Amino acid sequence: MGNFIDYFPGLLSFSQMPLEMSIARIFLILLGFLILYLGYKDVLEPLIMIPMGVGICLVNAGIFMMPDPTTNTAKLGTMFLDSMVTTPEQHINALQVYFLQPIYALTFSNGLIACMVFLGIGAITELDFFIGNPKLSLMLAIPAELGTFLTFPVAIYMGFNPKEAAAIATIGGADGPMVLFASLQLARNLFVPISIISYIYLSIVYSGYPYLIKALVPKKIRGIPMKEMKIKKVSSGEKISFSIITGTVLSLLFPIAAPLFVSFFLGVVIRETKVNRYIHLADDVILTSSTFFLGFLLGCLLSADVVVNPKMFKLIVLGFVALFLSGVGGLLGGYAVWWLSKGKINPLIGIAGVSCVPSTAKVAHKCANEVNEEAFILPFAMGPNIAGVITTAVITACYVTQVQML
């Protein structure tokens, strides 16, 4: 029997690794199938979850004993990629061995993938309500960062250092590219588990937040149609001017996050200039391809050694805490503007301040529309949704800048 297994290095590798690694590997293969199925059924975000599920399945199936050029020994590994290379010599060796290494080295490790996603998001973002009602939008976005603020001390209490805690806390902003950026800047050693946990949770947000809304907001209030509130029509010229001025000011104040600001507002400018070839490039090509490779590479990074990391369970808990607190904070902000407006503003738009563009805005609209078909609040929810992107970027920049000094 042993001779038979010797013909199949993937099966043989089970006998060459610790028992807990073998169990974790089987668990991840099954998890990959589950994520793929839920993405296929549209329960989770299919654009991210389908390629991620495939990656998780195959990377944990394709483990075998391979040579380690740095030590002239053999180690368990895959032909997919190595996220831990640091020196130029290691990069050159990795590029010759791993088939996904060029994509990872040239787009992930330098944060380019986050900027590409932000460019595409900017190209599909409508700014009318935000520009017409900036105070209201920001008033809703700030409390929706509750998880971003409170998860930091909780993570410190659970044993993470300040840089790691700050990277974990950015999950509360519900902005995937921002989490990638922060974890690469502050906690490269935890980049893989933080990024994977954040994207899985962000995909669950669409199906999980409605339960939070129904638990905290009475049915009668959820159906407020906001008919008395008008959306000011903003010209393309005003949106372009706003994008240039705001992007310049934010880059001046927080230069560490300037690549993200530039990418997002460039996407907005592309949308408003109405050059169809640019819009097609930003939306259909850049956003689609970067989202695909983002999901696929994150899946391929989730191997058994990541799961058996003793910090993994803490990260799972903290990721949930961050997004739960941000959702609660968003609804509390929504209640505040509902009370100040004497019941004219639907408080559900507050949860859109959790800046998972445009998912949380769609969640708010869906929950309102289920109660009252006349409650078309999506355009109003996009205001705090966009404000949430900006506040998350600012807080992330503050974390990256200030925590480096600790």
Offer a quick outline of the entry:
By secondary structure, the chain is an all-alpha fold. The protein has 21 helices and 2 strands.
Principal-axes geometry comes out as: globular
Number of individual domains: 2
Strand order of the largest sheet: 1-2
Oligomer: single chain
Q: Specify the helix fraction band.
A: over 70%
Q: Structural class given helices, strands, pairing?
A: mainly alpha
Cα separation of the termini:
57 Å
- β-strand percent reads under 5%
Number of strands: 2
Q: Roughly what is the average pLDDT, rounded to an integer?
A: 89
The low-confidence runs, each spanning 5 or more residues with pLDDT under 50, are: none
Work out the radius of gyration.
Answer: 22 Å
Which H/E pattern describes the elements? HHHHEEHHHHHHHHHHHHHHHHH
Describe the structure.
Helix content is 70%, strand content 2%. By secondary structure, the protein is mainly α. It has 2 domains: 1-62, no CATH class; 111-200 and 210-403, no CATH class. Helix 13 packs parallel to helix 20 (359-371). The termini are far apart.
Give the SSE map.
Layout: H1 2-6, H2 9-15, H3 19-40, H4 46-61, E1 64-68, E2 73-77, H5 88-97, H6 101-108, H7 112-123, H8 128-132, H9 134-141, H10 146-157, H11 162-169, H12 176-186, H13 191-216, H14 219-222, H15 236-253, H16 258-273, H17 276-301, H18 304-307, H19 312-340, H20 359-371, H21 378-403
Essential attributes:
globular; two-stranded antiparallel sheet; 406 residues
